[in-house]
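pipeline/complex-builder :: batch 7 item 3
reading input block
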Amino acid sequence: MIQALFIALSAFGLLMALGTVFARNLVNAALFLVAFFFVIACQFVLLEAEFMAAIQVLIYIGAVAVILMFGIMLTRNITGDETTTVSKPWRLLGLLVFGTVCTVLVLGINAYQPWTDLAVRPEFPVTKSTTTPRGQAVLSMTPTVGREMMTRYVVAFELAGLLLTAALVGAVVLAQHEASDVANANAEKAAGEPATANS
Amino acid sequence: MSQQIPLTWFLYFAAASFSIGLMGVLMRRNAIGVLMAIEIMLNAANVNFIAFWRYGPTPAGEGPISGVMMALFVVTVAAAEVAVGVGLILLCYRRWRAVDVDEFDTLSD
């Protein structure tokens, strides 16, 4: 039963990924990508990581997909959507790379005995008396994530905060650069001077 | 739960998604399409992290949820990458009126 569910879900997800790659219209591709993100969230639920599923929906579908949609809308191609993929020989090369990488990965997964032996996941009975740390973590993931983030992974947590701050400042600097470009262009137009390179 | 999903099925799914994302990176001309394909690859890696965390043994000294924490940080980096990437693409679009990656062939103007 759950295996059939997994197969149906995975087939749907792979179809959505293919749609993201091959769709002519970029807006359609973004919608396919949203469906793919949702399938990934479902996979996380199947793996009993419901917290990660919630994070996936919040961040990827709620933020990343919206940012990508903004980017698509703001950079609408004037020449049409025909130029979104490369020409035919390069497309064949891409398909070749896809086949090669996929074959190598599947053969590698098949060949490694410890992975093929892991057919049954460790069981955690849903009781209050589960004492192993893994069982506690699976049954109550959100407090465990908070505790780990503040103790064991505090350096990585601070670095992630630094990275997000840097990304925010970088986005502001990019926007400001653009504003000064426009101001320069306006000033040059007013002064009647030729455009100069600004870096 | 008589018939459980083997670990390898998740790995197969992640491998196929990763290959599709790689193909998208190679085949898309549009820079935002390339970004979307990169997101597919990152998600495939996250599925691998969570699957190995759920099925594998607990590593000594790394806490009970090492795979989940790794996937969380991957999500963080991916979000920052998309924000900066779309900002850069918008800047390039305003400067050259193009979003195709094969049009960006100058280091400076």
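note: The radius of gyration of chain B is 18 Å.
queue -> next item
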